[in-house]
């Protein structure tokens, strides 16, 4: 158990593994680098280990010491995906069980794929520069020399010098949060920030952000039940960080639900272990909806819809505190253990907070995204699988999609229903988390525990039910269909379906002025119901341009401040006869003055469709604005538009 090597890492973590790493960093705003030391405390796992190997990518290695003594080292030729292995010979091969300290002096470079450096004009305040990292899946190695695999969970600490406030995915030691910059002038005086992350987490959760950042606390809720007896229970607090110019909007958007989500997750799973759950609202170039960095979830400003309709993303990132940050996949082949479980948990939480029908509505919307990505991978059916057997050195970013999220969460929903429903299934969820706390596992480990739990807690009746599951189809099945037909509660979706069907039938009326549609049609709809309406409308033959224009005139979707609605609107119109008419509007939306749509869910898909409609416009828009996107998004959209190999 837990011994198979990660195909995306060149490190020798099965022989010798980092337990703790301390960073001594200085942020150099002038040349956009971070330099300093990474000091590893390593545990020897085998006798006579002669070297330690770290993953690096585009790092400038300046020197290495082992036990305080300078040693020779080598940086191997770069692998296109995995980077350059840093090989450090050990002067005296240690015995199994020994620990040793290896310190590496280094600097990041301008080719670092983990960090987005923003000029002040790219921020909300337009007064100070900004940086943020995004290390998942295998980009932490471009931030620091690490055994960059989720198979290795480490604690870390850091001292970071910067002229702008610094946040890390850890507990702040000093200066106090309330002082932010310790009373010194932001942007001029250097301040040292100290952090500690005492809970072992994978390297992709090491995160840094720095800029003109301020904080405001939310009201903290706790259930108070398991905290009295649970061995890992800790009191916790929660709040939001952002630029001052966005604080009012961000606080309003997230203050009502964030603490509720954490408290609900504690009630249905186990106590929250990380002590702090803060949100950081990033500039628009952040490439994801959210990133579950421990203690400090990074979120996109596209969630600031003004109506709290998109805060479900926060429930997702909170769920990662149990699934991924705690119990997590050992390598990218089993990514669904992170994202499928997290999506499943997120929907239980929102169902508890908002009502059970909202849980099923989220599954309905998710199925639309799943089907879109399954279609995208029709020529690469291996990526349609729940468990993807990656080749050595294969880039997991190439397979990033909603498949592990949606196929995985539907699989767990199917098992829940098969085994007796949510109330029967939740005790198993708690046992799963408690059994594998702090472990990195693979699908076989999960399945073995599943059978062991139900054999002990349900006997042969439950085992017969599990034996009836087509495991091969769920794990390795390809194609557009799930192995079973899963039904959802459509009580919230039916009105959206009905309206879409009316619009489909309206094509027989050539004079759109005679149609009986108006703004009251959707006045009672929540934003998720509007999303369902637009997605269901896409399942019919495209409407003629006259009807697309009338649809826009009646509902004004092209001016909606809800990014999920605008995204679906452009997906609809760019697949219609009106595509060329609306293509410039879609291009402008991707790069509008308020900030580029850096979230890859939106920008990658829209750029791909725009490229099919008007390749020249898509490429021109991209090339003129490419520098405003995060390095990960740049690389992926370059591929999408055929601008790189």
From TrEMBL:
One cellular component term from this protein's GO annotations in UniProt: cytosol
Cofactor binding note: Binds 1 zinc ion per subunit.
Cofactor annotation: Zn(2+)
Principal cellular location given in the protein's record: cytoplasm
UniProt binding sites for a peptide: 134-136, 287-292, 599-601
InterPro entries documented for this protein: Aminopeptidase_N-like_N, Aminopeptidase_N-like_N_sf, ARM-type_fold, LTA4H_cat, M1_LTA-4_hydro/amino_C_sf, M1_LTA4H, Peptidase_M1, Peptidase_M1_C
MF (Gene Ontology): aminopeptidase activity; epoxide hydrolase activity; metallopeptidase activity; zinc ion binding
A biological-process GO annotation: proteolysis
Subcellular location as annotated: Cytoplasm
UniProt KW Heme keyword: no
Binding residues annotated for Zn(2+), in chain numbering: 316, 320, 339
Start and end residues of each Peptidase M1 leukotriene A4 hydrolase/aminopeptidase C-terminal domain: 491-641
Active site: 317, 405
Keyword entries, A-Z: Cytoplasm, Hydrolase, Metal-binding, Metalloprotease, Protease, Zinc
Alphabetized SUPFAM superfamilies for the sequence: ARM repeat, Leukotriene A4 hydrolase N-terminal domain, Metalloproteases ('zincins'), catalytic domain
A family per Pfam: Peptidase_M1_N
Family, per entry: Belongs to the peptidase M1 family.
Protein name in UniProt: Peptidase M1 leukotriene A4 hydrolase/aminopeptidase C-terminal domain-containing protein
């Amino acid at each position: 158990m837990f011994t198979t090597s990660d195909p995306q890492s060149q490190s020798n973590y099965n022989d010798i593994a980092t337990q703790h790493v301390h960073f001594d960093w200085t942020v150099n705003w002038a040349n956009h680098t971070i330099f300093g030391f990474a000091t590893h405390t390593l545990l020897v796992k085998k006798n006579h280990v002669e070297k330690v190997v770290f993953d690096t990518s585009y790092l400038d290695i300046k020197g290495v010491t082992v036990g305080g003594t300078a040693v020779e080292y080598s940086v191997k030729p770069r692998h296109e995906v995995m980077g350059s292995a840093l090989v450090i010979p050990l002067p005296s091969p240690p015995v199994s069980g020994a620990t040793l300290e290896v310190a590496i002096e280094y600097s990041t470079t301008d080719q670092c794929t983990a960090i987005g450096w923003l000029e002040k004009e790219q921020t909300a305040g337009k007064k100070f520069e900004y940086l943020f990292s995004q290390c998942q899946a295998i980009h932490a190695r471009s931030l620091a020399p690490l055994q960059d695999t989720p198979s290795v969970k480490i604690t870390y600490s850091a001292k970071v010098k910067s002229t702008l406030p610094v946040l890390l995915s850890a507990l702040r030691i000093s200066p106090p949060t309330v002082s932010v910059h310790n009373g010194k002038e932001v942007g001029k005086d250097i301040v040292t920030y100290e952090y500690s992350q005492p809970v072992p987490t994978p390297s992709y959760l090491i995160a840094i952000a720095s800029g003109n950042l301020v904080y405001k606390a939310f009201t903290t809720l706790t259930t108070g039940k398991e905290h009295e007896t649970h061995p890992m229970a800790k009191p916790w607090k929660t709040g939001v960080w952002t630029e001052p110019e966005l604080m009012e909007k961000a606080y309003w958007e997230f203050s009502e639900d964030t603490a509720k989500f954490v408290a609900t997750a504690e009630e249905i799973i186990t106590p929250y272990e990380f002590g702090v759950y803060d949100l950081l609202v990033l500039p628009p170039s952040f490439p994801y909806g959210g990133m579950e960095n421990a203690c400090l979830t990074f979120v996109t400003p596209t969630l600031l819809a003004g109506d709290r309709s998109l805060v479900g993303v926060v429930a997702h990132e909170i769920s990662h505190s149990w699934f991924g940050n705690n119990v997590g996949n050992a390598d990218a082949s089993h990514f669904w253990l992170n994202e499928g479980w997290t999506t499943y948990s997120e929907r239980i939480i929102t169902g508890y907070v908002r009502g059970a029908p909202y849980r099923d509505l989220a599954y309905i919307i998710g199925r639309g995204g799943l089907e879109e990505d399954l279609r995208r991978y029709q020529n690469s059916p291996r990526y349609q699988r729940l468990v993807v057997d990656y080749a050595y050195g294969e880039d997991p970013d190439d397979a990033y999609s909603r498949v592990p999220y949606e196929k995985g969460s539907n699989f767990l929903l199917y098992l829940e229903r098969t085994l007796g429903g949510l109330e029967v299934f939740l005790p198993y969820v708690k046992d799963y988390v408690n059994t594998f706390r702090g472990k990195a596992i693979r699908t076989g480990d999960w399945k073995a525990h599943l059978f062991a739990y139900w054999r002990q807690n349900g006997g042969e009746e439950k085992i017969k039910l599990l034996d009836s599951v087509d495991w091969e189809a769920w794990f390795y099945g390809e194609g557009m269909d799930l192995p079973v037909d899963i039904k959802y509660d459509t009580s919230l979706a039916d009105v959206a379906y009905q309206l879409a069907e009316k619009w489909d039938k309206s094509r027989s009326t050539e004079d759109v002025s005679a149609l009986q549609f108006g703004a009251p049609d959707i006045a009672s709809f929540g934003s998720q119901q509007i999303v369902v309406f637009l997605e269901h409308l896409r399942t019919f033959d495209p409407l003629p341009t006259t009807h697309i224009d009338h649809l826009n005139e009646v509902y004004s979707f092209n001016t909606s401040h809800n990014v999920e609605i605008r995204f679906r609107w452009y997906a609809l119109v760019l697949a219609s006869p009106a595509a060329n008419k609306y293509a410039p509007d879609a291009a402008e939306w991707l790069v509008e003055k308020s900030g580029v749509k850096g979230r890859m869910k939106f920008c990658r898909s829209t750029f791909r469709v725009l490229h099919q409609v008007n390749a020249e416009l898509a490429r021109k828009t991209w090339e003129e604005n490419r520098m405003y996107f995060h390095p990960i998004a740049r690389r992926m959209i370059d591929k999408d538009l055929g601008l790189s190999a």
